[in-house]
Design goal:
Keywords: Cytoplasm, GTP-binding, Initiation factor, Nucleotide-binding, Protein biosynthesis
Structural class: alpha/beta
Bound molecules: guanosine-5'-diphosphate
Largest sheet: 6 strands, mixed
Organism: Dissulfurispira thermophila
Shape: globular
Subcellular location: Cytoplasm
Radius of gyration: 30 Å
Strand content: 15-25%
Strand order of the largest sheet: 3-4-2-5-6-7
Protein name: Translation initiation factor IF-2
Helix content: 25-40%
Number of strands: 21
Family: Belongs to the TRAFAC class translation factor GTPase superfamily. Classic translation factor GTPase family. IF-2 subfamily.
Oligomer: single chain
């Protein structure tokens, strides 16, 4: 530890002793104390789990290999403010002219080039897609271009887009669109946005504003320049000399080609023949196709590329990682699938009367929720008051719903959401309800003697219930 923080062992030990610790040279150090000791030498310590260690080592090694990478941009804004038009305008001015005769292909993202510098645009606009990816833990966007129509102003989805970008800590470049319209009023837009903390640089704020017309193709180059300027400030870097890593942007089952997916490469370089895993899908790169429909042999950082060679259709937002070989890829995918199934089974498994006692003993249950359905009001009420009268030192019995009628889907959903059991008295579940209960793992108990129902609950609470088969 002393070596790591670059201090003399004796000094480090002294500091530990000041904190009330008596470490010897070959004893592991207390983590909290270590943070304090390092801090007193002006060194910041970050505690990582052992399984993260190789990631850290990789990062250190990588920092030597880092080079600039293009920014990845998502366009957001209110409906009809011109997100799609802007994506098209950018693409038309910058892509087709360079790729003479090239067919533009929609693969979920495209790359444009300005004065030798690239920008990657994700071409599913809007904050829904952005947040859906983020909800899966993927961070793909470096810069958000917020489109606001100059003839309209800040609208509900503009505000949502601002909040989603802020939550993700992604800088916003504002494109005031439709400035070709006579009623366009860019000054008003700036004022309105300032209320939400989006302030132009000339007003002392942090945000770059550009006035554009997607329709008349005004200001497009300038917008790209400003995106590059923003990217420069951010010093976006990646190591191209390592196995590729990225995120699935889009995936589909293609009739002729099988499962295909667009991956945004985020570090490393992907090549034909590389083995990979993405979520529970694995495979080997058979073909790489770029956003102009051209077959390519390799793709580096910030490049969107369509990949053929997946075993199955992966899920958008999944992390894509290259591994040594196909066998390893399959093993990882299979292990993930098993883990996923276990997690699903655990999630679906709701409380049953049979396991109530063991759950109580494990301290997992503090309350037993019960839904009661019966044939007549009198018996429903009788069961309710008898159950509510049961006292137990650790568990409270709570009737969350009691009504006359057969057990229906709504009863099952309520029980599933509340981790409750269902008691039916002289009634049966509807077919749809029993199917749902099976799927959700909800315990339904049917009785025709009130006493039996009460006794079963009491016995279950005491751990005396005869197991059912
Ligand atoms: P989105 O819903 O944000 O993707 O908006 P669209 O790109 O579909 O544009 C909505 C409407 O605004 C369309 O009818 C476009 O033709 C129009 N539009 C987009 N950009 C401009 C512009 O710069 N000027 C004018 N006058 N109309 C525009």
């Amino acid at each position: 530890f002393a070596e790591l923080i670059g201090q003399k062992i004796s000094d480090v030990i002294k500091k530990f002793m000041e904190l009330g610790y008596m470490p010897t040279i070959n004893q592991p150090v207390d983590m909290d104390a270590a943070v304090l000791v390092a801090d007193s030498f002006g060194v910041k310590v970050e505690i990582v789990a052992p399984e993260q260690l190789d990631v850290i080592e990789e990062l250190v090694e990588e920092s030597a290999n880092l080079i600039h990478r293009p920014p990845v941009v998502t366009i957001m804004g209110h409906v009809d403010h011109g997100k799609t038009s802007l994506l098209d305008a950018i693409r038309q001015t910058k892509v087709t002219e360079t790729e003479a005769g090239g067919i533009t292909q929609h693969i979920g993202a495209y790359k444009v080039s300005l004065q030798g510098k690239d920008i990657t645009f994700l071409d599913t606009p809007g904050h829904e897609a952005f947040t859906a990816l983020r909800a899966r833990g993927a961070k793909v966007t470096d810069i958000v271009v917020l489109v606001v129509a100059a003839d309209d102003g800040v609208m509900p989805q503009t505000i949502e887009a601002i909040d989603h970008s802020k939550a993700a800590n992604v800088p916003i470049v504002v494109a005031i669109n439709k400035i070709d319209k006579p009623e366009a009023n860019p000054a008003r837009i700036k004022n309105e946005l300032a209320e939400y903390g989006i302030v132009p640089e000339e007003w002392g704020g942090q945000n770059i504003f550009v006035e554009v017309s997607a329709k008349k193709k005004i200001g497009i180059e300038q917008l790209l320049e400003m995106i590059l300027l923003q990217a420069e400030i951010m010093e976006l870097k990646a190591n191209p000399n390592r196995p590729a890593r990225g995120t699935i942007i889009e995936a589909k089952l293609d009739r002729g080609r099988g499962p295909v997916a667009t991956v945004l490469i985020q570090s490393g370089t992907l090549r034909i023949g590389d083995a990979f895993v993405a979520g529970t899908a694995s495979g080997k790169v058979r073909a790489l196709i770029d956003d102009t429909g051209k077959k390519i042999n390799e793709a580096g950082p910030s490049t969107p590329v369509e990949i053929i060679g997946f075993s199955e259709v992966p899920t958008a937002g999944d992390v894509f990682t290259c591994v040594e070989d196909e066998k390893k890829a399959r093993q990882i995918a299979l292990a993930r699938l098993q883990k996923q199934r276990l997690a699903e089974a655990a999630r679906h498994k709701k409380l049953t009367l049979d396991e109530l006692y063991s759950k109580i003993k494990e301290g997992q249950i503090k309350e037993l929720g019960i839904v009661i359905k019966g044939d007549v009001q009198g018996s429903v009420e009788a069961i309710r008051s008898a159950l509510e009268g049961i006292t137990h030192p650790e568990v409270k019995v709570r009737v969350i719903h009691a009504a006359v009628g057969g057990i229906n889907e709504s009863d099952v959903m309520l029980a599933a959401a509340s981790n409750a059991i269902i008691i039916g008295f002289n009634v049966r579940p509807e077919l749809k309800a029993s199917n749902l209960a099976e799927k959700e793992g909800v315990d339904i108990r049917l009785y025709n003697i009130i006493y039996d129902a009460i006794e079963d609950v009491k016995k279950a609470l005491e751990g005396m219930l005869e197991p059912t088969l």
